[in-house]
Amino acid sequence: MTQLYFPLFVNLSGKKVLVVGGGTVGLRRARILAEFGACVIVVTLSEFHHRTERMENDGRILWKRHAFQEEDVEGMALVVAATDDDDVNNRIAALCRKKQIPVNHAGDRDQCDFYFPGIARDEHLVVGVCASGEDHKRTARTTSRLKEWMKQHQPQPDSM
Question: Are 17 and 40 in contact (CB under 8 A)?
């Protein structure tokens, strides 16, 4: 039986969040976390995409160019393990569990304390869509439909 995840909306404003890994998944996670106000610290030796450099230049992320070290997780509210090395991701997940820091292991849903939902957003209205890690395509389709619906059903200004 699939583990169901409780939908929880969390205030990340000013909270330190660590993303370990500089690939496509790490970039996507860092971007969305920064959009929701997190103080995102990215640890990677690899070169990031030019958009990440732009996010760093805009002050939305702090990029630390070094290999993951255990002390990187200290003081973090959340951690994302998104390297291309399963051993490193597994080590990060185990360390976070030991320190009771919620972790998302991008390569192994069974080691995730939380998932990244599909997000449909219109100003202050935020809808998260999750299929408990089972069906990413369905989640993406549903999120896309919600975004379209939200565009078509914009709130009308009060007429007074």
Answer: yes
